[in-house]
Amino acid sequence: MFPTTLLTTLLLALSVAANPVLVDRSPVTLPISRRLNLTSVHNLVRHDQTRAKALKARGAAKAAGASFSEAAVINEPVDNQAVTYVASVGVGSPATTYSLLIDTGSSNTWVGATKAYVKTSTSSQTSNKVSVTYGSGSFSGTEFLDQVTLASGLVIPKQSIGVASTSQGFQGVDGILGIGPVDLTLDTLSPATGSTVPTVTDNLFKNGVISANEIGISFEPSITGDDLNGELTWGGTDSSKLTGSIGFIPLTTTSPANEFWGINQSIKFGSTTILSTTAGIVDTGTTLVLIATNGFNKYKSATGGVIDNNTGLLRFTSSQFSALQNLQFVTAGGTFSLTPNAQIWPRALNADIGGVAGNIYGIVADLGTNSGEGLDFINGFAFLERFYSVFDTANKRVGFATTPFTTATSN
Ligand SMILES: *[C@@H]1O[C@H](CO)[C@@H](O)[C@H](O)[C@H]1NC(C)=O
Ligand SMILES: *[C@@H]1O[C@H](CO)[C@@H](O)[C@H](O)[C@H]1NC(C)=O
Ligand SMILES: *[C@@H]1O[C@H](CO)[C@@H](O)[C@H](O)[C@H]1NC(C)=O
After folding, report:
1. DSSP letter for each residue of 156-199
2. pTM (2 decimals)?
3. Which ligand is nearest the CA of 172, by number?
């Protein structure tokens, strides 16, 4: 026989769980899978540095009121995608399924890089051309309105999407699902310049499909190349993925980081300051953790690591690895620490990046420019695989929370 209070609690819990109204507008979750495709030496670091350079140029151009393509020419080789997270997204009715890169550093959604766009009764061509340049590629084509199905119950009837006629740098994926701030779409259409393109998240919120203009992302560290281990939640967070409360950090006002998911942060290795408080960004499209050159050099000497010629990454001896201290990311929302194990590349994947089995490579790399340029670090995948992240448009903030994998020794 249950005590009455416990029974009441149980009944209450049951009735809440069975309430269909809550289910209707609950956050909706989409599984995402990780893919690894590294083919040439130095690819990983160079890929990330190229992206960093492009993001900075794009942000700076935007802040100056110029369009990216006019203001900046990136004379860098177009690299293959290194580590990517991909979601299956349906377009049209009946829907054709496309594998799209999840990108917090851009905001246009488009298809057609590999699999051709299939027009159906829901497709409607607009009079606009569209064109976007990324650090690791570009695309141009025509803007359409079409029905986009992200998951069951997560359908957008008239999403503006790009349909590529040419694209560069996208192997093995069909396009991008852009989940960055909407301002990044400004001037990507022509002749409709001066306007933005509502993002998938904007439309879900506007249509009342989700009740908060916010995205939660869960990645898990993995020691295999391809893995279905991530999820993207629209309209809230998936509390089953968190072990702590979410620490929120206001979006930075510093340019050009403020064009993206930018925050202020300082970085410490043990008690050594690696980077004083400065602005940078949180970015799913960057594989490593990038720190401005002067800060990276401090990390390099504090750890004793040397640059490995084959991979471009820092390489540690086993005794240097044993001596690593926590790398702390100090923010207004709390301090988030990468354990020693979280500071190294998964050793099972050394060969995939041109490394040698048994070596120990670090995931902190050089941003390529000194601090003081308004975008002095990038918290990429290597960070996001250890913390749940929340991108909150409505309240202009980014949040992080610990997960069961924050201190896991999976590498
Ligand atoms: C991996 O990269 C190679 C080299 O660029 C490319 O040819 C291949 O299509 C890519 N594979 C996948 C699955 O992305
Ligand atoms: C971030 O740092 C800049 C530069 O120090 C400062 O002006 C700003 O107030 C800080 N906070 C936010 C939320 O941008
Ligand atoms: C790495 O490359 C540099 C420049 O090519 C060379 O000077 C150095 O000796 C190389 N280091 C190793 C360990 O091979």
Report:
1. EEEEEEEEEEEEES--S--EEEE-S-GGGGTT-EESSTT-----
2. 0.86
3. 1
Q: Is the separation of the CB atoms in 59 and 105 below 8 Å? A: no
- The residue written with tokens 């005794």 in the block is 319
Based on the domain organization, do 110 and 202 belong to the same domain?
Answer: yes
| CB-defined site of ligand 1, < 6 Å | 37, 39, 80, 171-172
Q: What is the DSSP letter of 215?
A: E
Q: What is the pLDDT of residues 82-133, one digit of tens each?
A: 667 889 999 999 999 999 988 888 899 999 999 999 999 999 999 999 999 8
Is residue 323's pLDDT more than 90? yes
54 and 140 housed in the same domain: yes
How many Å apart are CA 390 and CA 381, to the nearest integer? 14
The single-letter code of the amino acid at 188 is: T
User: How far apart, in whole angstroms, are the C-alpha atoms of residue 320 and residue 333?
Assistant: 30
CA 150 vs CA 54, 97, 110, 277, 294: distances in Å: 28, 10, 13, 38, 42
> Hey, what amino acid is at 18?
A
Q: Which ligand minimizes its atom distance to the CA of 101? A: 1
205 and 255 belong to one structural domain: no
Q: Examine the domain organization and report whether 269 and 346 are in the same domain.
A: yes
Which pLDDT band holds residue 134 (cuts at 50, 70, 90)? confident
Residue 66 confidence class, pLDDT cut points 50, 70, 90: low
The CATH number that applies at residue 100 is 2.40.70.10
The protein residue with its alpha carbon nearest to ligand 1, atom 13, reads 172
